[in-house]
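User: Predict structure, ligand adenosine monophosphate.
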Amino acid sequence: MKTEILKPTKENINIAAGSIRKGELVGMPTETVYGLAANALNPDSVKNIYSVKGRPSNNPLIVHIADFNELDKICYINDDAIKLAKAFWPGPLTILQYKKDIIPDAVTGSLNTVAIRMPSNKIARDLISMSGLPIAAPSANKSGRPSPTLPEHVYKDFNGLIPYIIDGGQCEIGLESTVINVASKPYTVLRPGKISIEEIRQILPDVMLSNNILHEPSPDTVPESPGMMYKHYAPNAKLILVSGDRFNVAKKINELYNKSLIENSRTKILCFDENAYLYPDKSFIKIGSSKHHEELAHKLFALLRSLDEMGVETVYSEVADLGGIGLAIMNRMIRAAAFNIIDVDKIK
Ligand code: AMP
Ligand code: MG
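Assistant: Predicted complex:
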């Protein structure tokens, strides 16, 4: 199969919608990351998503809708979910509710809840509306790889496996949606995203944060969300995060960098713009200001992918503050680093 990247004209979106109706998979831009879109009501199409991604079949998919009226068809919607949907949709919030039978088990990994989102990206909404279907779409990357924020990323991972990718340019946010379970109490944020827990608490004050956002679930517990268990977002290079006071961090990273250079020359440092001067004569990449994490969110996944293209083997990185979207950045980075983080303030 030849994969075509389509400009987002009405005509082309209609062609892609027809392809989804036929049971095929399409690369779909959204404001978070690119999705691999399929008819959520067709178990064969949904199974095909898992197969081309290499995704474990018990890691459920998000169902995307473009119209509030769809909700009643796919889930038993409760009042608190309606409050959240009214406050944050269309937008980067995914809401878990008990599912109706129309949603195949393949979508939910046989769980009795379904994850639902109404994206704000206009191309995504047009594609969903024109297909006339709820759309199951995980991030359009091979399982374990950094999520795609450009059409070329989708092409790299799925060239020859899907007929179309719609070119929506670079994703506005660059990190996946916030996922919240409001099917049963205690209501819990399972994955942080652009919409922060502080914003959610303005609507539902008692929402909690899952303990696994910055920690690996132990293998003997049942995770609140299957996705927490898997290796994620990882570049080929070994990524090591260093946290703590910025001067102690720089001292540690310089030390590790010098040691690692003796073993191999393909070492890089990721640092905030204002700290670059702390790494004289080193090979570093600036990741934006530490005061405005939006820029880092926007380019994080592309950056992780570009490290692979440069053939980098070891990366030492400064870390984001945990406020606002910083928590979402750290949730992704700590998984990309396979939980390999050194806290310099704790050593000594
Ligand atoms: P992705 O498709 O890559 O954006 O990942 C979707 C995330 O939502 C994964 O971490 C899933 O585990 C999670 N998810 C989807 N449906 C459910 C559900 N019914 N219960 C818990 N987590 C879910
Ligand atoms: Mg994903």
